[in-house]
Structures are given as structure tokens and as C-alpha cells.
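Q: My labmate handed me this sequence with no annotations at all. I'd like to see what the chain might look like in three dimensions before we decide whether it's worth expressing. Could you predict it?
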Amino acid sequence: MPTTLTPPDTRGRTPDPAPARPPRATAATWVIPLILGAVTVFGLWWIDVRPAAIAAGFEDITRLLGRMFPATTGPVPELAALVLETLQIAIAGTGIAALVSIPLAAGAATTFTGPRWIQWLCRTLIVVSRAVPSLVFAIIFVRIFGLGPAAGALAIAFHSVGMIGKMMTDVFEEISASPREAVNATGANRLQVFIATTFTQALPQMTSFVLYRLDINIRASSVLGLVGAGGIGVALQRSIGSLDYPRAAGIIAVIIVLLLVLELISNLVQRAVSEHAGDTEHSMAFPPGKDLATPGWNAPRVGRSAGLLAGVVLFLLSLSALSVSPDRLARGWDNAVAMLAGFVPPVFTAEIALGLFESLLMAFTATTFGVLIGLIIAVLSTDHLVRVPVLGWALRGVIVVVRGVPDIVYAIIFVAALGLGPFAGFLALAISCTALASKFFTDALQNIDPGPIRALEAVGAGRLQAFVAGAWPQFVPSFIGNSLFTADLALRESAVLGIVGAGGIGFLLHESVTSIDYQTTAGILIGLIVVVVAVEQMARWARRKVI
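A: Here is what I predict for the chain of 547 residues:
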């Protein structure tokens, strides 16, 4: 979307942007943190998080880690094939999701002028697919299509439709209506208007969203093998199931290295995907040529076009590698019809309610710990308070490595060391939330205006005083928004940790699918969707009240 240009002032300098509006001092500013604190205290009691238990748990984890070394990967050709399969699952699933998300987002946007029932249907599909984690979809598709990467790719696609569709909908709604009205006045139909205006303007942002989602999906696809959906997770599941901990450690190390390398590549590609705007120029996907009505060709545009062609080829190759035959599709369709028929009537029991409640407690309690520890790490990682560059770089490096390990891998390690139950799930989520929150907070602190801090220091304020009075007011909106986003992600992850025995609703879900108790499966899915959507609405309300 083109950026809005700010006219230069009389001295030829672009004026500084208006400072962010500070959060409103309302009753909600104090009530919401108090409620979250009360939920956290209750969650600590429910999960039985005690200093003695944590100390004993770390001793058990240390012993387990000792049994994992020296690490080994096993047969390298087999592992390389599984890594390739993981990439194919992520690429195929992301590509399918991107293609499906475009018409869904166009129908869900407020700018859609067609029948209202189509808009309602598109919005419902986006919300439902976003609420169900990819690992839950993987359990269902393994039951429908059998073991293998096809189930994994469909799981990635179905969950990603909700995420990509939501972001695309926001972009479509923010685009200026003037070009759309102008093309519509020429007599063009609805599809021609969409392609000529909305789609064309949104293409750079859409490409960036898809690449960002691909990075996330590669992380997700690395563990889908735990439920039989293909990829390197298959080898990890076998190693842990056979108590071959050295090979499990080697596979986890391969996953970490793979994700770090792919994250670096993804960042480089996202930077090259479009020419971002400077202080006085528009963002554009390609520069103008000699004729202003004709796009120009230069090295960046040639590179982007070649990258697009390579992406299409990779997507098609990944699809062909899934080995989805017509016979398998027919059997899958029959299984899907049987499963959907078995969903009626859904069964919702007290055991399901307890599992959802436990998932909620794990998520919010872990989020509180992650946000607090992440804030400390973020402050130490920036130069606004503690100005030790070596410490900042070291902490950021550690966070990058910690973020490279999927949540469920942490859960597997903690379950193996501490036993079944929500305590293992809480520890896994707390580590994940800490890494995620510290990443968000560090980026936010780096982007605040240092002027107020330097001005306070110039009049004799100490570093802590300058940070509290100069940095914190600017940082609070980002702190609240990123904390709520972290809680939202933690809730989705807590719903699947039970698959490996780490508490929550995941265990019941896995058992209901494998035992063909589809009525219970339907009850769990409906309950999970209701809880996730309710939490999203509460988070949206909290943002409006506090920020």
C-alpha cells in the first residue's frame, strides 16, 4: 500500500511524526492487570508450581540432558530425506493457503459488495481455521488420509488460511477506495475491479505475509511427524519412543539449525521482495520506466520476478512430492464424510471443560512469567538503561536459539524428565513465551524515540529515572499489545501440548480421534474454537480500554 507522504516544512526537512498517544488512565488500566495477576496465582496453585518442585525438576532435566550426549543423528540419508519432506510440507501447505486465502479475504473484507451470506461464510471460515492449531488439524487429516506428508501439508494449509486470510483482509480494507471507484465507473465487473486495483496494490504486503507465514510453517511442520503427518518429527518420535535420547538430541539440533538458517533466508527474501519507501517516496513493487504508464525493468525487479518463478516451481514440485493419488483422495473423501457424520451430535463433557480450563491456566500463567522475564531480557538487550553491547548481543543470540526450538519439543523433554502433567506443559510454554515476548519487547524498545531519555539525562536524571520517565511511557502501548498477542499464541499452543502428555485438552483430543469417538472430537473442537475466539475478543476489548 502506498505510504502517505508528509510535506516538508519551511526548512526543507520532513517534520518528526506526532508522538504516540499515551495509554488512557482508566479503571481498566488497573483492573485488567489485577485480574491477570489473580489468574496467575490461581494457576500456580493449580499446576502446583513450587520453588522446591522447580529445583527438583531442573535436577531431573539435567540428568536427562546428560543421557542425551554425545548426540548422534543416525543414518544421514534418512534424516536428509525427512528434512526435505519437512520443507515440502511447509511449502505446499503455505502455497495452498495463499491461493485459498485471496478469495476468502476478498469476500470477508468490508469492501466486498456481493451477497452478505458470502461475506459471513468467508469470515467464519477464517476465524475457525485460525482458532484450530495446525497439530490438531494434523491429527484429523492423518485419520482421513492416513500417515504421511499429505496430511501434514493439508494441516499447514488449513491453519494458515485463517492467519494469512486475516492479514490479507486487513490490507484489502485499508486500501484507498478511489482507484476501485474509478475502475468500477468504466463498467468493469467485480473480478476485474478487484484484480486491477485491490489485488495489485496489496501484492507487496501479501507477498511479505506469505513469506512470514512460510517461516512459521516450517517450524510447525518440523513437529507434525509426532502425530504421523510426515517430516523430521517422525524420526524424533521414534527416537523418544525407543528411549534413544542421543539420537533425539541430534535431531533436535538439526531442527534448530534448519530453522535458524531458514529464518535468515526468509528475512533476506522479505527485504528484497519490494522497494520500501524512504522519507519522501512511495513504496512500490517496481520502478517506473521511461513511459510512466509502463513498468520499468531493473536488477531488483528482475530478481523478484526470478524469485517468483522459482517459488512457483518449488510449490509445484512440493505438491507432486506429496504422492496424492486419485484413489487416495477418494478414500480420504469417504473417511472425511464418515468423520463429519460422526460429529453429530457433538458431546461436551465435564472432562472436556476441565481440559480446556487447564489449557487456559497453563497459557495465562506461562504468559505472565514469559512477559516479566522477557521484559527484563529486553531491557538488558537495549542501550536505553544497561549500556553493555556485549551483553545485549549475547542475550539476543540466546533468544534466537531458544526460539528455534518448537514448544512441543520442550514439552517432550520436560515430560520425559518430570513425568506427565501440566507442570511440564507450563515450563515449556514459559520458555516459549519468554523467548517470544523478549523478541517483541526488544524490537519495540529499539524503535522508541531516544530524545526524551537523552533530555532527562542532560538535566541530571539517572539511567533508571530516564528510562522510567522517558522510555516507559512510549513503550507501554507496545508492551500491552505484544503481551496480549503472546497470550493468544500461548493459548493455541497449550491446546496441543497434551498430545505428548503435558496437560491440557490435547490428550483428550488425540484419544478421541484415535478411538474414533468423533462426537467427543466435535465437542472438543467446538469448545476450543469458542475459547480461542472469546479470548481474542477479550484481548481486543482490553486493547481498546487500555491503549
